C-alpha cells in the first residue's frame, strides 16, 4: 500500500496539459459509446405534493424551492420528444424515493410506479436508453425524522429494499443503474459544511450555523453507510437481476481534477492527499477493499473501520464508476492545520483549494463560469486508468454553468462542450475505458446550490411563461449537430455564432 502511494504521487505529475483534438465527430468514438444528457428528479419533476409523493430532505432544506421545478412530471412526453429531436442516445434521470415509496419503506405508491413506467416506456419507444440514478440528496424526510437518515445503519436495509422495487419494476428496460449521486460531495456538503441537504454542520465548521450536526464525525459516518448501502444494492442486483436484465450498475462520484499549486514536494503530496480524500474515499474501498491510508491516519477513530465482512461486500461492488467533472482546481498544502485538535473532514484533508493559480484566491462556490481546462478531464481519466486499473467509466455530468437568464446565446457553453468532448476523445485514444458521456443538464433545472440563480441547460425554460416552454440555446443546436453525426470544430462554432448569434429573441427554433 505504501509503495502504491508513492507511485501515485509521481503519477499526478505525469498528466501534462495536452491540446485536445479540435475537429472530430461521433464516429471517432468507439462503437457502442453512448452520448446523452442528464437531470434529476427533484430538479425537474415538480408535482412535489401530487399523487402521493411525500417530502424529501431536499424539500425541507430548500423550503419547497423545487415544488414546480420545470414540471417534467406533467411534461415528460414533450421533453422526451425534444430529446429525440436533439438526438440523445440516452437520458440520465433519477427516481424520487419519496414518490415511489412515500414512507421510505413499505407500500409502493401506484402513481409513482406509473409515472416512472410511463417515462421509461416513452424513452424506449423513442430509441433513447434509460440510465437511472436511484438517489440524489433526496431520501424521504420521514427516514431523517425516524433515525437520522444516512447517520443510521438502518438506511442500508431501507435503501436496498427501495432499490429492489426499482430493479423489479423497471429493470427490464434500464440499461444502467447508478446507486448514489456524488456521495463524496453529499457527505461533505450535507454533513460538514451544511450547504446541501440535509444541511447539518457544527460550529466552527460549516458556512453558517446549522441547527444540528457534528462536522467532525458525521461526514465519515454518513459516507460509510452510503458505501455499505451502495455495495448491498450492487450485490442484490448482481445476485438477482443482472443476468436477466443485462444492465450495469455503479456509483457516481464528484471528480474535480487536482493540480499542485507549485512544484514543491509539499504541494505535490497535498494534491495526492486531496485525491485520496475526495476520490479515494469511495474508490479505494471499491477497488482495494479499504479506505486510503492517509484518511485513516488523519481522521483516526472518526473514520469508521471497514470490517473484514464489510470490506468483502464493498470490494469489487461496481461495473463502472460514474464521474461528475466540471473543472480543474489548484491544491496547496495546509498540513499545519493537522496540529489543531478539533478538525472536520476538510481540515483532515489539510489542503487549500483554489480555482486560479493565484494563491490568495479563495474557493468560490458560485463561479459565474467554470474555468475551461479540458486537459483536466484527460488528467483525471489517466489517473483512474493508472491508479485503479482502468475501470469502465461514464462521464455522468459535464457542462458549463452560467447565470440563468433568457439569453439563448451560450457560445461559451458551446466552446466548453467542444473542448471537453475533444479532450475525452484524446483520453480514449490513449486507452481510457470511458463508455459514455452525459451533458449536465438537458434543460435548465432547479439547481442544488442556488435554485434558479444559475443554469447549465441545453434548453432554456421560460419560467415567466405559464406553460414553461423550452427553447433551444445555441448549445442545443451544437450538441444536436454532433449527435446526428456532424463534424464539429472551432470553425463550426463560429458558423453557429453567425446563424444563431442573435437568437436571444424568443422564437422557437426547431432542432435538426
Ligand atoms: C454561530 O455560533 C457561534 C457559537 O455559538 C457564535 O459565536 C456565532 O456568533 C454564530 N454565528 C452566527 C452567524 O450566528
Ligand atoms: C462530535 O462527536 C465527537 C465524538 O462523539 C465529540 O467528541 C464531539 O464533542 C462532537 N462535537 C460536537 C460539536 O457535538
Ligand atoms: C513546475 O516545473 C515545470 C517543469 O519543470 C515547469 O515548467 C513549471 O513552470 C513549474 N511550475 C511552477 C508553478 O513552478
Ligand atoms: C445572461 O448570462 C450571460 C452569461 O452568464 C451574461 O453574459 C449576460 O450578461 C446575462 N444577461 C443578463 C441580461 O443578465
Ligand atoms: C498515455 O498512456 C500512457 C500509458 O498508460 C501514459 O504513460 C501516458 O502518460 C499517457 N498520456 C497522457 C497524455 O495521458
Q: Determine the number of helices (DSSP H or I, runs of at least 4 residues).
A: 18
What amount of the residues lies in strands?
A: 5-15%
The main sheet comes to: 8 strands, parallel, barrel
Structural class: alpha/beta
CATH topology name, in short, is: TIM Barrel
What's the N-to-C terminus distance? 53 Å
Per CATH, which architecture? Alpha-Beta Barrel
Q: Which spans have pLDDT < 50 for at least 5 consecutive residues?
A: 1-17, 362-366, 503-510
How is the largest sheet built, in terms of strand order? Answer: 1-2-3-4-5-7-10-12
CATH superfamily: Glycosidases
Describe this structure in words.
The chain has about 500 residues and is an alpha/beta fold. It is built from 18 helices and 15 strands. The strands form 4 sheets. The protein has an 8-stranded parallel beta barrel with strand order 1-2-3-4-5-7-10-12, surrounded by 6 helices. Strands 6-8-9 form a 3-stranded mixed sheet. The chain has a two-stranded antiparallel ribbon with strand order 11-13. The protein starts with a helix and ends in a 12-residue tail after the last helix. Bound molecules: 2-acetamido-2-deoxy-beta-D-glucopyranose (5 copies).
Topology, please?
Layout: H1 2-11, E1 34-38, H2 41-44, H3 57-61, H4 72-86, E2 90-94, H5 97-100, H6 110-125, E3 129-135, H7 141-147, H8 154-170, E4 174-181, H9 183-191, H10 218-245, E5 248-254, E6 257-260, H11 265-288, H12 293-299, H13 308-314, E7 320-324, E8 328-333, H14 345-349, E9 351-354, H15 375-388, E10 393-397, E11 402-403, H16 411-429, E12 434-440, E13 454-455, E14 459-461, E15 470-472, H17 474-483, H18 490-500
Parallel strand pairs: 1-2, 1-12, 2-3, 3-4, 4-5, 5-7, 6-8, 7-10, 10-12
Antiparallel strand pairs: 8-9, 11-13, 14-15
This protein binds 2-acetamido-2-deoxy-beta-D-glucopyranose (5 copies).
Residues 202, 214, 216-217 line the site of one 2-acetamido-2-deoxy-beta-D-glucopyranose.
Pfam family, one: Glyco_hydro_1
Organism: Hevea brasiliensis (Para rubber tree)
Family: Belongs to the glycosyl hydrolase 1 family.
Amino acid at each position: 500500500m505504501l509503495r502504491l502511494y508513492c507511485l501515485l504521487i509521481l503519477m499526478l505529475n505525469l498528466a501534462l496539459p495536452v491540446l485536445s483534438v479540435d475537429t472530430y465527430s461521433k464516429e471517432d468514438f468507439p462503437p457502442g459509446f453512448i452520448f446523452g444528457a442528464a437531470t434529476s428528479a427533484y430538479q425537474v419533476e415538480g408535482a412535489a405534493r401530487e399523487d402521493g409523493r411525500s417530502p424529501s430532505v431536499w424539500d425541507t432544506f430548500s423550503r419547497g424551492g423545487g415544488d414546480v421545478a420545470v414540471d417534467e412530471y406533467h411534461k415528460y412526453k414533450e421533453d422526451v420528444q425534444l430529446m429525440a429531436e436533439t438526438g440523445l442516445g440516452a437520458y440520465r434521470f433519477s427516481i424520487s424515493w419519496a414518490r415511489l415509496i412515500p414512507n421510505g419503506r413499505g407500500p409502493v405508491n401506484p402513481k409513482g410506479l406509473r409515472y416512472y413506467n410511463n417515462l421509461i416506456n416513452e424513452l424506449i419507444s423513442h430509441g433513447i436508453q434509460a440510465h437511472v440514478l436511484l438517489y440524489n440528496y433526496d431520501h424521504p424526510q420521514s427516514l431523517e425524522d425516524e433515525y437520522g437518515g444516512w447517520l443510521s445503519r438502518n438506511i442500508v436495509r431501507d435503501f436496498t429494499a427501495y432499490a429492489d422495487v426499482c430493479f423489479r419494476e423497471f429493470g427490464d428496460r434500464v440499461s444502467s443503474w447508478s446507486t448514489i449521486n456524488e456521495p463524496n460531495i453529499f457527505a461533505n456538503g450535507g454533513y460538514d459544511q451544511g450547504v446541501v441537504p440535509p444541511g447539518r454542520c457544527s460550529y466552527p465548521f460549516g458556512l453558517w450555523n446549522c441547527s444540528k450536526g457534528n462536522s467532525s464525525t458525521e461526514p465519515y459516518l454518513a459516507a460509510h453507510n452510503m458505501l455499505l448501502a451502495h455495495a448491498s444494492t450492487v450485490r442484490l442486483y448482481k445476485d438477482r437481476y443482472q443476468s436477466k436484465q443485462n444492465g450495469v450498475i455503479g456509483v457516481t462520484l464528484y471528480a474535480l481534477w487536482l493540480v499542485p499549486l507549485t512544484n514543491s514536494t509539499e504541494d505535490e503530496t497535498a494534491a495526492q492527499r486531496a485525491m485520496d480524500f475526495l476520490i479515494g474515499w469511495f474508490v479505494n474501498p471499491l477497488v482495494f477493499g479499504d479506505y486510503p491510508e492517509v484518511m485513516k491516519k488523519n481522521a483516526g477513530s472518526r473514520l469508521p473501520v471497514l470490517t473484514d465482512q464489510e470490506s468483502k461486500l464493498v470490494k469489487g461492488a461496481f461495473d463502472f464508476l460514474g464521474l461528475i467533472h466540471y473543472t480543474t482546481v489548484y491544491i496547496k498544502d495546509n498540513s499545519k492545520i493537522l496540529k489543531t485538535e478539533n478538525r472536520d473532514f476538510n481540515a483532515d484533508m489539510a489542503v487549500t483549494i483554489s480555482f486560479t493559480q493565484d494563491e490568495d484566491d479563495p474557493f468560490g462556490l458560485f463561479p459565474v463560469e467554470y474555468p475551461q481546462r479540458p486537459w483536466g478531464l484527460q488528467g483525471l481519466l489517466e489517473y483512474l486508468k493508472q491508479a485503479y486499473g482502468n475501470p469502465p467509466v461514464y462521464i455522468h455530468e459535464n457542462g458549463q454553468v452560467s447565470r440563468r437568464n433568457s439569453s439563448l446565446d451560450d457560445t461559451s457553453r458551446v466552446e466548453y462542450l467542444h473542448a471537453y468532448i475533444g479532450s475525452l476523445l484524446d483520453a480514449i485514444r490513449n486507452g481510457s475505458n470511458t463508455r459514455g458521456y452525459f451533458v449536465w443538464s438537458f434543460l435548465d433545472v432547479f439547481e442544488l446550490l442556488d435554485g434558479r440563480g444559475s443554469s447549465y441547460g441545453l434548453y432554456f425554460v421560460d419560467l415567466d411563461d405559464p406553460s414553461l416552454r423550452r427553447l433551444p440555446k445555441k448549445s442545443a443546436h451544437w450538441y444536436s449537430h454532433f449527435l446526428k453525426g456532424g463534424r464539429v470544430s472551432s470553425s463550426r462554432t463560429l458558423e453557429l455564432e453567425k446563424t444563431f448569434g442573435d437568437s436571444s429573441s424568443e422564437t422557437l427554433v426547431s432542432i435538426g
